[in-house]
Amino acid sequence: MARARDVLRRTQEVDGSWKGDYGGPLFLSPMYVAGLYVMGRAPEARVRDGMLAHLRAHQNADGGWGLDEESPSLVFTTVLNYVALRLLGVAAHDGDLLRARAWFLPRGGALGSGSWGKFILALLGLYAYDGLAPLPPEAWLLPRALPFHPSRLWCHCRMVYLPMGWLYGRRARAAETPLLAELRRELYPMPYAEVDWEAARTRVAPSDAYTPRSVWLRAVNRVLGLHERLHSKRLRARALDECLELIRGEDEATHHLCIGPINKVLNAVVWHLARPEGPEVRAHLERLPDYLQHCPDGVKLNGYNSSQLWDTAFAVQSLVASGQVDGARDTLARAGRFLEAEQVLEDSPCAARNHRHPSRGGWPFSTRAHGWPISDCTAEAVKACLLLEPLGLNRVPHARLAQAVGFILSLQNRDGGWATYERQRGPRWLERFNPSDVFADIMVDASFVECTSACVQALLAWSRAHPEARVGRPIARGLDFLRRAQRADGSWEGSWGVCFSYGTWFAVTGLVAGGMKPGDPVLRRAAAFLQAHQREDGSWSETVQSCRERRWVDGPTGHAVTTSWALMTLVATGNGDSVAAQRGGAWLRARQGADGRWPPEPMAGVFNRSCAIHYDAYLRVFPPWALSLVMHSDCIRAAGVGS
What we know:
Blueprint: H1 2-10, H2 28-38, H3 45-57, E1 65-66, E2 73-74, H4 75-87, H5 95-104, H6 115-123, H7 155-170, H8 178-186, H9 197-200, H10 215-230, H11 233-253, H12 261-274, H13 279-287, E3 292-295, E4 298-301, H14 308-321, H15 329-341, H16 375-388, H17 398-410, H18 449-465, H19 472-485, H20 500-513, H21 521-532, H22 545-549, H23 560-572, H24 579-591, E5 605-607, E6 611-613, H25 618-638
Antiparallel strand pairs: 1-2, 3-4, 5-6
């Protein structure tokens, strides 16, 4: 435990946060390279060399690239990574590229790619816009009251399709170069001039069809195709102007960081075409490096500008749980200062005009500059601040914590749960129109187990510190949502981590914080579920494939992070002194290295059910946290208290 706490102390940033690798998806770096190429630019030499190393390091044995560093090959990512390597100067006869072509050409080449890949290729002039499902910008001119107005989509979804719509409406494409002409000959199993682009709209390789295109989506695409042939030029110009103003609003509210790397790159391309060399382009180029991650295997694009706030809030809770805070006061004090500095203190400019939920009082996933606060990030920050309060280390004033609580309350959905950035805006049936192919659950920001539990726990902590707070009803509704979300096998499905171990940890800790006692049937079923999936060596080993298949899938070896979540859940259910918990704790202690760290293991984060992502801090935060709780249970048992 002392060594683990020392690792946290040594890896803390100067600003008091913990910041690390938040990469893993293999479609982000190629989009970055493609966006720069459209803008007539290229990565600087160090970044170029690092990206080449990273892309080569994560090519699969079959020659393709997966959706993430650990997944099977997809045409979407294989073609994009192939193109990126060529744009970075690798010759077509390179051995790695020959293997890639041998994999993707029998699968239709670029014609088999998921829809986002086809769009990026169209932007480069490597795919005809006639082969895309229509993305008319006029959708943003529809009445806001309609259930399918773009503002009702999950914010990550709408912020990607916003610049896509503008670029589609302009039929934007890169300036022609000899290299692009060569690529058009390399990406297809037939001559480019012979491609049937109308048939290509509905074509997708089986590897990329994680979310099949519904009959409803196909029908809508046919209607939108008719619109594309008949649309008014004047209306198109109005729609493009509307999209550009909304893009400007997103840029200004996020200090040109944008909500994520995809719309960041696409927004930069939009401004390059709308105002070449204008101030917007310069502002975007200045913030692009915020997404770059330099790591031992090269350079890549992170999935966010960082996960700093999220990781820091958990690190504080882990350190406080150890019970040995005297030796960590300086570390916790610096973390408290970081938490204070990163709270969002104002609403985004023209929030209603830009379809934004009020932001004041919330905390983002990364930094205040990012400008998009999230329900569970705010909740974990509130919990951390309230833990620091009795230590004299909380720097966030009471009034600002009250604003954070108000922000959390403003996000509760009708079903009693919490989503991510906003209340649920669109009906669940919008998921039938998911056009992404490779992702699930991208259309609607519905309630999540993790967000709901975090918000319930934060409200409970606030009510204990401030008994006068009127938060009982929201808490009760949130607890009821958690109870209803339990699966028949006793687990809860997680959406932002792998998967049932993660979701069950959140749900159980939320319910126990809300007063559920050991012995309750809900907790007994949860404990039985986890005990049934414990490995012979005492560990747990759930993989991201659990999220994709929506059933528990074991890995070949134990995972420290998954084991930590399982142990923390068992302690919460009153089974911290059980044989299962003791075996898990013993495995976790034995797994720790002499330097205090736990060795690298598969990614524990996930998004949209199909793509894994890496949380660098999890191996430093969760194992010592879990061991602290198990040791506390040992002490209680030794004292003869409890079962």
